[in-house]
Specification:
With about 375 residues, this protein is of the alpha/beta class. The chain has helices at about 25-35, 60-70, 85-90, 95-105, 120-125, 140-145, 165-175, 210-220, 225-230, 265-280, 295-300, 315-330, 345-355, and strands spanning about 15, 40-45, 50-55, 75-80, 90, 110-115, 130-135, 150, 180, 195, 205, 255-260, 285-290, 305-310, 335-340, 360-365. The termini are far apart. Bound molecules: threonylcarbamoyladenylate (TXA) and magnesium ion (MG).
Length: about 375
C-alpha cells in the first residue's frame, strides 16, 4: 500500500500565533493535547515547519509516519530545549556536545548521538542512535518546554519540498495533523545541518542552515563530507536514512546547470541560456534564476522565477523550497535552475537542488 494515497480525515485545529511572543494559553492547550492525548502538531522552527509528537509516545510517533507517508526506516529529529534534555534521549554524550550547545544552540545544527533505551525505536527507525537539536524559534521552544522532547520531521508530505510558509503547511497537512501552529514564514527556509558525532572522525550527514565551515571551527577537527552529503550521488545505504529517498522534489522535472566557477556571472548566464535554448525547443520551460541574471533569460522570451540574489546565499536558501513549489503551479514541462558556489549555505542549496532534480545535472565551463 502506498501510504501517501491513504485518505486521512483528521480534524485539524489551527492557531495563528505570534512567532516571537505566542499566547501562553494557546501553547498550554496545545501542550495538553500533545502530552495527554497523543496529538501530532505542526509547529514552526527557525529552519522549516516540523510535525511533532511527544518523543516517548510511540503511538503518536507512528501517526507522524502515516500523516507524511514516510517510510518507517527514516528516523526523526528530536527537538529539545537545551543540553539538560539531551540527557533524557541520548547517552555516552561526548564533551564536544557541551561546546556545541554553548556556541551553536539554539540553532540549526543537529547532532547524532547514542540513543537511550527509553526512546521508542519508531523515533530512530530502529537505529541505535538519535538525532537531536535545539530549535531557535520561540514557539518551538515554549512548546517543548511544556511538553518535553518532541520528535519531528519536516511537516511536508514525504518527498515534497519542506514547508517554509503557512500555505505549504495547509496544503500538505490540513486534515492530517491534529494541530497547526501558524506563525508565518520560517526564518532560514532550509533544514538544519546534521553531523554524526558517533563516528570518528565526525561525519557531515546533511549540509544545512548551519554553515559547514563554522561547524569545523567549533569541532576543531576534520569533518568528513561524503559525496552523498553534497547531493552528488544517491545513497543506497543508510548514512542518514532519509538521504536514500527522493527528496525536496517538485512534480515538474528539473535540470540543474552547474559550473566550476560562478565568478563571471554574465559568462555563466550565457551558458545557461545555450542549454535552455537547446532543451526548450520543443518543451515549455521555466528558468529559476538569481536576481542578477533573470532578465537575461526573460529578454529572450523565457518565463522566469527569481530565487534571490547571488550575493545573498541566505536569501537563495530561504526562497528555494517556495520557488520549487511555485514551479509546479506553472504547469510546464521542465524547470531549469541555476547553480551556486558551494560556500557557506551554498553547500546545502546545491545538495537540495541536485536531489530535487533527481541528479539531472548539466556541467558548463565558463572559462
Ligand atoms: O531543520 C530541520 O532539521 C527540520 C526541523 C523540523 O527541525 N527537520 C527535518 O527533519 O528536516 P527530516 O525528518 O525532514 O530530516 C531529518 C533527517 C533525515 O534525513 C533522517 O534520515 C536523518 O535526519 N536522521 C534522523 N535520525 C538519524 C540517525 N539516528 N542517524 C542518521 N540520520 C538520522
Ligand atoms: Mg524532511
Amino acid at each position: 500500500m502506498n501510504l501517501s494515497t491513504v485518505v486521512i480525515t483528521t480534524i485539524t485545529k489551527v492557531y495563528i500565533v505570534d512567532p516571537l511572543n505566542p499566547r501562553e494559553d494557546v501553547i498550554e492547550s496545545c501542550c495538553e493535547d500533545v502530552k495527554k492525548r497523543g496529538a501530532i502538531v505542526v509547529f514552526p522552527t527557525e529552519t522549516v515547519y516540523g510535525l511533532g509528537a511527544y518523543v516517548f509516545n510511540a503511538n503518536a510517533v507512528r501517526k507522524i509516519f502515516i500523516a507524511k507517508g514516510r517510510p518507517p526506516d527514516n528516523p526523526l529529529i528530536i527537538h529539545v530545549t537545551g543540553i539538560d534534555q539531551v540527557y533524557e534521549v541520548a547517552e555516552d554524550i561526548p564533551d564536544i556536545v557541551l561546546k556545541i550547545a554553548r556556541i551553536a544552540w539554539p540553532g540549526p545544527l543537529t547532532v547524532i548521538l547514542k540513543k537511550r533505551r527509553e526512546v521508542p525505536p519508531e523515533v530512530s527507525g530502529g537505529l541505535p542512535t538519535v538525532a537531536v537539536r535545539v530549535p531557535a524559534h520561540p514557539v518551538a521552544l515554549k512548546l517543548i518546554e511544556c511538553v518535553g522532547p518532541i520528535a519531528a520531521p519536516s511537516a511536508n508530505i514525504s518527498g515534497r519540498p519542506s514547508p517554509t510558509e503557512p500555505h505549504h503547511v495547509y496544503v500538505d497537512m490540513f486534515g492530517r495533523a491534529d494541530i497547526i501552529l501558524d506563525a508565518g514564514e520560517t526564518f532560514f527556509g532550509i533544514e538544519s545541518t546534521i553531523v554524526d558525532l558517533t563516528s570518528d572522525p565526525p561525519k557531515l550527514l546533511r549540509p544545512g542552515a548551519f554553515p559547514y565551515e563554522k561547524l569545523v571551527e567549533i569541532v576543531g577537527r576534520k569533518i568528513v563530507v561524503p559525496d552523498v552529503a553534497k547531493g552528488l550521488k544517491e545513497s543506497s545505504i543508510a548514512l542518514a536514512p532519509g538521504m536514500k529517498y527522493k527528496h525536496y522534489a517538485p512534480r515538474t522535472p528539473l535540470l540543474v546547470v552547474e559550473a566550476e566557477d560562478y565568478s563571471d556571472i554574465d559568462g555563466y548566464a550565457k551558458k545557461v541560456l545555450e542549454v535552455a535554448e537547446e532543451r526548450c525547443r520543443d518543451r515549455k520551460c521555466v528558468l529559476l534564476a538569481s536576481k542578477e541574471t533573470e532578465w537575461i533569460y526573460r529578454e529572450k522570451g523565457f518565463t522566469t522565477l527569481i530565487i534571490g540574489s547571488r550575493y545573498n546565499i541566505y536569501e537563495i536558501a530561504k526562497n528555494l523550497f517556495s520557488v520549487l513549489r511555485d514551479l509546479d503551479r506553472l504547469g510546464v514541462d521542465l524547470g531549469i535552475v541555476e547553480g551556486f558556489p558551494e560556500i557557506g549555505l551554498g553547500l546545502a542549496v546545491m545538495n537540495r537542488l541536485r536531489k530535487a532534480s533527481g541528479y539531472n545535472i548539466v556541467r558548463v565551463s565558463t572559462c
